[in-house]
Each structure stands twice: as C-alpha cells, then as structure tokens.
Predict the structure.
Amino acid sequence: MFQGLEHTAIASPNPQKLAQWYVDVLGWTINYTYAGNYFVKAPNGSMLEIIPSEGERVELTMKTPGIRHLAIIPEDFDAAYERLKAAGVHFYTEPFEIEGNRLVFFGDGDGNYLHLIARRTPLC
C-alpha cells in the first residue's frame, strides 16, 4: 500500500541558495519550484524539497532527536570525497570504515548533516 518516500523536506532561511548548493556541489537539478519552495532531484530520482524556515535554528548534533542525516550514494567514494573537499564543504568527520562500508559526514550549505556512504553490500 505505502510504496516509499517521494521526497524529504528541509527548512532553510534561504531555500534558493541551499537548492543551488545541491546543484553546484552534488550535481543535482532543480526540477520544480513554487512559492519559494525548491525541489532538487538526484540522478537516481530521489528528491529533497527545500522550504522557507521560520524562527531560530536550534543547535543540532548527530544525535539530536529527529531526522539526523541524509545518506548520499557516490559512484566513486574517493572521487566524490575529493570533489567535496575541492568545493570547500565542512566535514564533521574524517573518512572511516565500518563493517566494510566507507563513510564520511559533512554539512550542506546550511550545515545539515549529510554523509557519503559506499556500502560493501547494498541493503536492498
């Protein structure tokens, strides 16, 4: 009955600027906009909706309750990591390996937690 997620929303003080970050840094495309909201689409079809935020941002950590990170699948982990470094993104960790999976945590243009993950064995 329920087939999965169509998109995930991120509230931003500057939705257009954050959407452009996903275009410039991750190579995604803005595929739909309306009333200050921006949908960005990854090559695999997954989407984020970036909406205008309201109020002050609370300090976040990787364990603050709620959605904590978005996992990004690279074609080539090392090349993607180098591209992020060249783009000047802020890394929360150094690359590491756990159970054969390679990961690194970093922030998007607003500081939301993202991470690259290259799995030895896909989950699905």
